[in-house]
From TrEMBL, chain A:
Native species: Rhodobium orientis
Protein topology in the membrane: Multi-pass membrane protein
Matches recorded under PANTHER family: GLYCINE BETAINE/PROLINE BETAINE TRANSPORT SYSTEM PERMEASE PROTEIN PROW (PTHR47737), GLYCINE BETAINE_PROLINE BETAINE TRANSPORT SYSTEM PERMEASE PROTEIN PROW (PTHR47737:SF1)
GO biological process: choline transport; glycine betaine transport
Pfam families in UniProt: BPD_transp_1
Record's protein name: ABC transporter permease
TrEMBL record, chain B:
Lineage, top ranks: Bacteria, Pseudomonadati, Pseudomonadota, Alphaproteobacteria, Hyphomicrobiales
Family the UniProt entry places it in: Belongs to the ABC transporter superfamily.
Listed GO CC annotations: plasma membrane
CDD domains: ABC_Pro_Gly_Betaine
SMART domains: AAA (SM00382)
Organism: Rhodobium orientis
Name by which UniProt lists this protein: Quaternary amine transport ATP-binding protein
Compartment(s): Cell inner membrane
Length: 290, 345
């Protein structure tokens, strides 16, 4: 038998320490945290209920209109209509609405949190040096690892699913906000400073508008990652299309898994189209000097 | 008024060293260590070494030098986009280096504005919004800012383009937007860092003429950076020459052309078409009784005529021409020999 790695430190103690510490947090703060996140939960369930309450053709028309406004392409709009129609036809409508709600709310929260973090990072080299490796770790960590602490804190349900999705999906928007602002033409920043702009005016009149295409690319990636997380999140009770896939696996119903999986792909295509086209539009006047 | 009484900007022993800990190498800098030695020994780069200048109000003051001589670094001290390692800048007697953030902001909004080499316009804003930018951020209401900006757009000849975006304009037009933006705040001091260097020669000529016309009307104090001596001679009332962050010579164009201070300046001067930048007055030989002996039809030339325009006058007549001032009083004579000598340098 090969030689085992020598036990230099007592990992058992370390592991017990970490687990005990975490359990202590759960025991003492679990309930407080749950209460703190109630408004978020409400927001999610209300959005879900609202989307399911809307007549299907309203949702379909709204998404088609949004696609047309951003892409200016009839083909894309018709494609979106067809995909949504198929989702409805295969009996996945309500599940799809639940998935859209989870994706929208988690993307929204990730963006609301991620952009300010990205801005802070762009202003401080120290903060950037600390944050980049953390973001790297967050993006390489297997998705399942995120579920453990959140499920322990909240038990299975929508809140841990939402939080795990946010943590999983937030790195791109932080990363690209930081990058976008740092890449803004230094001479333009000098110019606005030379005219007496305050740091806040500099941010809102120059840095954010000029970084917007990059920031939107980040939002786009975050949206896609949130969508890819919904299948996993369904395992801890998020519902939606992911839950249908899970049921398909559990009951060995290939058809159900396949149809729900197709629904997820359709949603991914739709939101990718919209987000990308929006990113391109906001870039229209920004190719100065190239 | 003499220059001494009318100093608008006083640059007082400015030093700028780039690097980890500039203070620590200042002793070496004062001892006169060379730029390359300092870089090799300490990893610090000298941007500006002990530059002092007096710039008179209403003057177009040109700072010139080759790439890397520290022109951009120097001009960015005037509105403190760069903090000096040592020294002071006084504008109207107030030390810019000593200003706090609030004072600096007010100073930048009202006293001094800047035009950039690569235009530095905001690509997501229209011409009108770009030109009114300085007014807008200092809190002027939109209508008033737009009205004022429209005047500046007219002034630089861009009527009708106010709703275009910068990318829809040519380089020359974009820089006129940059100029209008700088004029819009009514700042008395205009900083121009190689403002015309990115433009092609014909457009560049137009812009130089336009700047001269505007300046004749507006009487700003202009600090203009260039690496082109022709441009410097054309628009500058005074010219300062920088090398490796050090001041080599300050003077009028003619002074620099006729008496270059050292080899470096000499080399700049050599390639210039002297007939276009020297005036007849600057080469005239003073009159002493000799005037009487000349025939009555001897041609007369105004002293502020450029040499190239004086050729014709000399070609006619006996070969000598009388140089006169504005009031037609003789101040000297020129002969083909003096002219040729001046052209030969
Ligand atoms: N931020 C900086 N850090 C380190 N060195 C710098 C920095 N900015 C300028 N320098 C150095 O200072 C010197 C002067 O640079 P500066 O940009 O002022 O030159 P310039 O005369 O404007 O040249 P150009 O005609 O190429 O614009 C150069 O040697 C440059 O490398
Ligand atoms: Mg420069």
């Amino acid at each position: 038998m090969a030689e085992n790695f020598p036990e230099l430190i007592d990992t058992r103690a370390l592991r017990i320490g970490i687990d005990d510490g975490f359990n202590w947090v759960v025991a003492n703060y679990g309930e407080a945290l749950e209460i703190a996140f109630l408004p978020v939960l409400r927001m999610l369930t209300e959005t879900e209920r609202f989307l399911q309450w809307l007549p299907w053709y309203v949702v379909l028309l709204a998404l088609c209109a949004l696609t047309f406004v951003t892409t200016r392409s009839w083909k894309a709009a018709v494609g979106v209509a067809a995909m949504l129609f198929l989702i409805g036809l295969t009996g996945m409508w309500d599940a799809a609405m639940a998935t859209i709600a989870l994706m929208l709310i988690s993307t929204l929260l990730a963006v609301i949190l991620g952009i300010p973090i990205g801005i802070a990072m762009s202003r401080s080299d120290t903060l950037q040096a600390i944050s980049l490796p953390v973001l790297d770790i967050m993006q390489t960590m297997p998705i399942f690892v995120y579920l453990i602490p959140f499920v322990m804190l909240f038990g299975p349900g929508k809140i841990p699913a939402l939080l795990a999705t946010i943590v999983f999906a937030i790195p791109p928007v932080i990363r690209l906000t930081n990058l976008g602002i740092r890449q803004v033409d230094a001479e333009v920043i000098e110019a606005v400073t030379a005219f007496g702009a305050t740091p806040r005016q500099r941010l809102f009149t120059a840095q954010i508008p000029l970084a917007l295409p990059t920031i939107m690319a980040g939002v786009n990636q975050t949206t896609m990652m949130a969508l890819s997380m919904v299948v996993i999140a369904s395992m801890i009770g998020a519902g939606g299309l992911g839950y249908q896939v899970l049921q398909g696996i559990q009951r060995l119903e290939v058809s159900r898994g396949l149809l729900a999986g197709l629904g997820i792909v359709f949603l991914a295509i739709i939101f990718d189209r919209i987000a990308q086209a929006y990113g391109r539009r906001s870039q229209q006047h920004l190719n100065l000097g190239d | 008024m003499t220059d001494e009484q009318n100093i608008k900007i006083k640059v007082d022993s400015i030093c700028k060293v780039f690097g980890e800990d500039p203070e620590s190498v200042m002793d070496l800098v004062h001892q006169g260590i060379s730029k390359s030695d300092l870089l090799e020994q300490t990893g610090h780069v000298i941007g500006i070494r002990d530059v002092s200048l007096d710039i008179a109000g209403g003057q177009t003051f040109v700072i010139m030098g080759l790439s890397g001589s520290g022109k951009s670094t120097l001009i960015r001290h005037f509105n403190r986009l760069i903090e000096p390692t040592a020294g002071h800048i006084l504008v109207d007697g107030v030390d810019v280096v000593g200003m706090n953030q609030r004072e600096l902001k007010e100073f930048r909004r009202s006293k001094v504005s800047m035009v950039f080499q690569r235009f530095a316009l905001l690509p997501h804003k229209t011409v009108l919004d770009n030109v009114s930018y300085g007014l807008f951020i200092s809190g002027m209401n939109r209508k008033k800012a737009y009205d004022h900006a429209m005047e500046q757009i007219s002034l630089v000849g861009l009527d009708g383009f106010e709703n275009h975006y910068p990318t829809q304009l040519s380089g020359g037009m974009q820089q006129r937007v940059g100029l209008a933006r700088a004029l819009a705040t009514d700042a008395e001091v205009l900083l121009m860092d190689e403002a015309f260097s990115a433009l092609d020669p014909l457009i560049r000529n137009d812009m130089q003429s336009q700047l001269k016309e505007l300046q004749a009307r507006l009487h700003k104090t202009i600090v203009f950076i260039t690496h082109d001596l022709d441009e410097a001679l054309r628009i500058g009332d005074k010219i300062a020459i920088l090398k490796d962050g050090e001041l080599r010579q300050v003077g009028t164009g003619t002074q620099i052309m006729l008496h270059p201070a050292d080899d470096y300046v000499e080399r700049f001067v050599r390639d210039v078409n002297r007939s276009r930048v020297l005036t007849i007055g600057s080469i005239a030989e003073p009159v002493d009784g000799a005037l009487e002996g000349l025939p009555a039809d001897t041609p007369r030339i105004r002293e502020d005529t450029m040499l190239d325009e004086g050729f014709r006058a000399l070609a006619t007549g006996s070969g000598t021409a009388i140089v006169v001032d504005e009031a037609a009083r003789p101040v000297g004579v020129v002969t083909p020999k003096t002219l040729l000598e001046a052209l030969a340098g």
